[in-house]
Amino acid sequence: MTSSTQDSNTIFLTEQEAERIRNTVKTRIEQSLARKNHVRESRDPVGAKQQATGASLMADMGGAPDPDMTESAQTKDALPALGVGSTYAPCTSSLKDLQPMKLSELRMETHHRGRRLAVNRMGPVVTLTARSWMMVQDENGNDAERLEICLHKERYGEDLLESTKDFVIKEPYFTLTDQGEATIRIDHPSDLVTVNQEDQKQEKHVEEVDVVGEEKRAKRCKDRGNAALKEGDLPVAYQEYTEGIKIASQEAIVQANLDLARDIHRNRAHINLLLAQFDEAKLDGKASLTKRDDQKSKDLDSKAYFRAGSAAYNLAQFVEARDLFLSLQKLSPSDKDANTYLKRIQSRLKEQQNGNYEFKKLRAGVSSARPRVDAASFTTNTEIKDSLGRDRGLFALHQIAEGDLIMAEKAFTVVFGHEPTALTGMTYDVRDDLIRVSPLGLTKAIVQKLLNNPSQIESVMRSYSDWTGTETSKHVHTTADGPVIDVFRVHDIVSRNAFGPGAQFGEETAHKASTGFWPHAAYINHSCLPNARKEYIGDLMLLYATRAIEPGEEIFHAYDENADFDARQASLRRTWGFECKCEVCEAERADGAEIRRKRVGLVAEADAFVEKESWAGVKRLVLRRAQKLVRDIEGSYEGERWDGLPKKGAEGLKVWIGKASVRK
Ligand SMILES: C[S@@+](CC[C@H](N)C(=O)[O-])C[C@H]1O[C@@H](n2cnc3c(N)ncnc32)[C@H](O)[C@@H]1O
Known about the structure:
Layout: H1 3-6, H2 15-34, H3 45-60, E1 69-71, E2 78-84, E3 99-101, E4 110-111, E5 115-127, E6 131-137, E7 145-150, E8 154-155, E9 158-159, H4 160-163, E10 166-170, E11 173-176, E12 182-186, E13 192-194, H5 197-203, H6 211-231, H7 234-248, H8 251-256, H9 258-274, H10 278-287, H11 295-314, H12 318-331, H13 336-354, H14 359-365, E14 382-386, E15 392-396, E16 405-410, E17 413-415, E18 425-429, E19 434-438, H15 440-452, H16 457-461, H17 471-475, E20 478-479, E21 482-483, H18 487-497, E22 515-517, E23 525-526, E24 532-537, E25 540-545, E26 556-557, H19 565-576, H20 583-591, H21 593-612, H22 620-635, H23 651-659
Parallel strand pairs: 2-18, 3-5, 7-12, 23-26
Antiparallel strand pairs: 1-2, 4-11, 5-6, 5-10, 6-7, 8-9, 10-13, 11-12, 14-15, 16-25, 17-22, 18-19, 20-21, 24-25
Helix pairs in contact: 6-7, 6-9, 7-9, 9-10, 9-11, 10-11, 11-12, 12-13, 15-18, 21-22
């Protein structure tokens, strides 16, 4: 995260608490490695079920301590603490290409690559803040195992574990919990596939399709889906429609009743819009088109165009959205919604092409209840290119005058501090032995959005990340079973690319800080001598030129604005993993520790002075002291290396002097 969310918001852990987190993670790794490849010990199913039932009751009553939680020293608020950095790639094969295995074949501290394990849940799910777990058994039924899923357990708007009983785990990872108990552990949500038992039964009879019976079955799914929608039960409506589409899309049913699948696709498009699954909503809308000329078909197609168009709009695919709404307008020229949408699209296209925003209206429209703006991103002034020593960076394509808008970007995702999804955690990274504050709520929201909209995976995964995945997993974003999301990559992308959009809607605490991810702006590198500054309107990031920028020049903003060189370097190293070598940092480095220490002391004195002394009617002596302090600070920047560079630290004092009037 950028310093803007961290400066005033640092979360302190006591030494003991930090040590406890470190030890827990290290011990877990040591113990599981020591038992690597050990044969699994079977569990008594009755005892296992009782254990889950007891733990679930305790968790529901708030009675059992959540083993992942830790307390910060300052506020005594409880935060989840997680070990990170023990990365592994998600499974990139489809279920059908994996070989089945049994619980008894699990080996400790092993990723069972190329294998799949079918299990069903016994007893309840124990829901904890960062991890949830349950007991499962395989088809033999005389054995049981613990299955734990970390953070990402929502799908189709509901809790994946609670809503289903039958699962297949792709390439199961068998390891220990932080408390030393054996467990199957799932980090990547795509490694857990839910199974519909009806499906399995049906698949056995694919050869002899009973057309009349199947048509009836699909219609029943559709009716049940409609009823669930009426009740507001979107997950059930989604499941029923999906099942109905599957049945109605069989060749024999399509031959007999082509419109049945179309009708269900049209209905599911609506559910998908409500579930923010825009990729599928768009496909559903298009799949339901009849393209016939009778009025009833035209009305149905209008609905389909509307749903597909809204989905495209939400995916910021404004040209496609315009075409879809124009098709709708052709069928229903007086459709008011189409005309409203077309006007909105026109505005978005203008914003996208020229950065033509109605800022006043946008500012007036945001509030804590509506913190996200209806706006497009404007990125055509810039391009992404290699930046020497900094991997990639953002560069100006044209001349940009001082004060002009360089780019504007609507966030891929923002979690605002006041929203229920905000969740801050402490992560201990085994790769660099550091404990950090981590916006777990943002990571969760990004993973969720990618699961819902797999077309976005590639552009998000291009961002800088310490863990890049394996050669295969880097490029495989989907299998026959759905999207593949590497959550470790998302976590590392968040660590190095998230910004804080500031406290726009009232005060924030470190435990509930607003954070977001802007994929284009994520390419902007840091400089302590930046040529750009950021502003936010809700989730829209605006980047302005702080001086004239030439075509081809790299754009920089300051990740950390701390005037103290050593503190700034430490923060850049810790949060961003690099050492700044900009001209200012090189000059400060050349100054040496002694001069820097003296300067930090003088700046602190100046800050304290401004804080303490009133500028109204000051004594001449006091004014002289202020003037001397300014001279001392500026004088500490000695030598040619400082020519043309800003001599920072006395700004506040200079403003104070400007206002001061001497007492007569
Ligand atoms: C938000 S990303 C910036 C874009 C990144 N360079 C890329 O290739 O995607 C932040 C990461 O860029 C690198 N970076 C940013 N500013 C840098 C600088 N001044 N010097 C060296 N590396 C820098 C660091 O690896 C940092 O963690």
